[in-house]
Please model this.
Amino acid sequence: MKTICCFLLLLCTAFSLQAQVPATKVDNLRVFLDCQAYCDQDYIKREITFVDYVNDRFESNVYVLITSQSTGSGGREYKLQFQGQGKFEGLTDTRSYIRQATATDDEDRKQAVENIKLGLLPFILKTDKAKDLEISFKNAGDESKDIATNPEEDPWNFWVFNLSLRGYFSGDRNYSSNSLNSEINASRVTDKFKTNFSVYTNKNNNRFGEGDEEFTYTNERYGFRNTTVWSINQKLSAGGYINGQRSDYSNHDLDVSVMPAIEYNFFPYSESNNHYLGLMYKVGPRYFNYKEETIFSEMEEFRFQQSLSLDLSYNQKWGQISGSTSYSHYFHDFSKKRLSFSGYADIRLFKGLSFNVGGYYAIQRDQLNIIKGTVSDQDLLTRRRQLDSNYDFFFNFGVRYRFGSLFNNVVNPRFNGGGGGMVFYY
Model:
């Protein structure tokens, strides 16, 4: 009996191993999709079936890096970079397309598929599959919508407006919270000039406990901001920031700053999809009118400050790295300063092993707005107002290792749900 069981077990194992052997042609392109911007990989695999999709970039002979940047109209510019590996080493191609702000996800993924097909064409032509290739063109009479390229052709003169209203409500017998946020935004972006105006409001109500133990508080914040930038050349820009706000949490009845700025990019701005290294300097006045007296016995003050920051980001086939460091201080007292560091990295070490880490740390001595007086237990527990602290940080990390079948051509959506349901936890 034991002999029969062992035989059946070996037979099942053999069938299982045989089933895992990928039924693919040796000449198929092996494509690795690196979506560092959103892409619907299931849809791509359904629509482009003449290649093999692999889980490991080292096993691919065509590496596809997909990145994106926001456009002035609120859309996205996607850049698709194709890089040959192995026998296709040295063969590269780059394609890009614009997703309009009003486009649906379906329209976007169809654009992505068309551009991926075109990007893979130079590689297909170097394989035996080229003999099965058919070329056709859309009818010249097909209607298409042209994108305005000059202000004269655009009735809005490149201005884009956004209105938003958002509410949030949650709670139970012992706790409740609700907030209401609204914002009006106007922006205009061209190659030589960019400006953005926003006016926003936020009101948050909180309740802890019930009856005689009930404690409630409300935080309100209103403000406006403007960023304006002029392009000087491919690496240099100048402009400034104007900000104003009223905030219960920050003890500001009025906080207004005007900060002229200049930025130098060590790489041309046209290459910012792949790498960016920018140095920015800001300097200007800031006026404070406080709701309550501060720890420095001030109810209002007018100060000048300056800051210097260095920002970087790299998107390559081995992963992505981004980071920033900034130093600022007030001129009236150089000890009122702030030094901060932040960064994120997602790196593929080898094969299916990747490592990601991110965090932020700030040494802060510039909190002019802290309210004078003792700190209550309620202030500590609810964080209803900003408290004195000489540092601030967060940190996260993760490791991921994937192994198993190299190929992943199959799409099976069963039991995935519709993606729009509501979940209740008990």
